[in-house]
Backbone:
């Protein structure tokens, strides 16, 4: 999973082997209705083993550090965590997040570079 992931139209996450990450050029996750960049941040990341994922829990969790809030509306959780699902293959992994209601199936997908 280590590497840089980029999305279209915007959003970048770099997952490092030491368990840290950086995020930049980030969208607010309702971007199909009102696209806007909301910043970025850094912290640590964790991959949840497949046998530990429950229901719709996500596979990768980003835990942000520092006092600055990085997203306006979508990142208001008090624990400062943000999650993604993983899809694709070992050679071409992708991480994704639903942009709206999961029943609508609109995804913001970041592809490994």
Residues:
């Amino acid at each position: 999973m280590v590497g840089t992931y980029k999305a279209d139209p915007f959003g970048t996450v770099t997952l490092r082997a030491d368990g840290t990450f950086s995020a930049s050029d980030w969208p607010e996750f309702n971007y199909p209705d009102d696209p806007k960049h909301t910043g970025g941040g850094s912290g640590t990341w964790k991959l949840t083993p497949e046998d530990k994922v429950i229901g719709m829990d996500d596979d990768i969790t980003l835990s942000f550090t520092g006092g600055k809030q990085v997203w306006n509306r979508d990142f208001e959780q008090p624990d400062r965590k943000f999650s993604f699902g993983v899809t694709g293959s070992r050679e071409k992994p992708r991480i994704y997040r639903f942009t709206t209601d999961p029943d609508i199936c609109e995804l913001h997908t970041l592809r490994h570079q």
Q: What stands out?
A: Residues 7 and 47 are 20 Å apart (CA to CA).
